Amino acid sequence: GAGVSQTPSNKVTEKGKYVELRCDPISGHTALYWYRQSLGQGPEFLIYFQGTGAADDSGLPNDRFFAVRPEGSVSTLKIQRTERGDSAVYLCASSLQAGWLTDTQYFGPGTRLTVL
Amino acid sequence: AQTVTQSQPEMSVQEAETVTLSCTYDTSESNYYLFWYKQPPSRQMILVIRQEAYKQQNATENRFSVNFQKAAKSFSLKISDSQLGDTAMYFCAFMKHENTGKLIFGQGTTLQVKP
User: What is the dihedral of CA A93, A98, A101, A107, to 10 degrees?
Assistant: First the structure.
């Protein structure tokens, strides 16, 4: 596809369950970012990958959150023992390289996670 | 730590008129980048305009321009000839001059363009 895609678009789960959110970046983009956007707020950085490795995971709120990008393309954000406070829109973005001003971050449409 | 503040939660403007959205930020960095992103109801964030802090000239992209005041740590967005399609949430964002690409966003301003 031409843009960043994220699946599912909506996810409803129960407190305590495990969820996986998937991000397909633009083909050829080596940098991938995850952000979390709570209702009425701006996105907050969670983690970014350069290739397969997590170069900065300083935004992950706790050890229930984990992300992988095993082949340097698709990434999965994993949340264990979900809590109601995890409810938010999870945004993924990709760019050709990380940190170069000329490399715009292209965002996907997000996954809206609702924890009941 | 860097912070970005947008003090206008909501704004409205008549079609074809001009509107200015405010943004202030706090940082001890001397070199950094600033951005305005647009988020329509589809949720997909779209880059509107960007500014390098070391450049004194204000960035311009068609109907969008910025007023960058480095000493005041202010970065406002001016939208000229507003169009109905400009209706969206607008976010100001900051990025340090290092090789991470990590964006720090403000709280956003909802802009409604009225016919």
Answer: 0
Mean pLDDT score, A26-52: 93
Q: Are the Cβ atoms of A33 and B101 closer than 8 angstroms?
A: yes
CA distance A58 to chain B (A): 10
β-bridge pairing A111-115 and A10-13: parallel
What 3-state class would DSSP assign to B106? Answer: coil
Q: Which chain A positions have a beta carbon within 8 Å of B46's beta carbon?
A: 107
Is the pLDDT assigned to residue B96 strictly greater than 90?
no
Task: Please state whether A52 falls in left (phi above 0), alpha (psi between -120 and 50) or beta.
Answer: alpha
CB neighbours of B103 closer than 8 A, spacing ≥ 6?
A: A33, A35, A43, A45, A105, B35, B93, B94, B95
The H-assigned helical ranges of B8-104 are none
Q: Which one of A40, A99, A109 has the shortest CB-CB distance to B99?
A: A99
Chain B residue nearest residue A3, CA to CA: B44
Give CA–CA dist A52/A65, Å, rounded: 17
pLDDT, position B27: 92
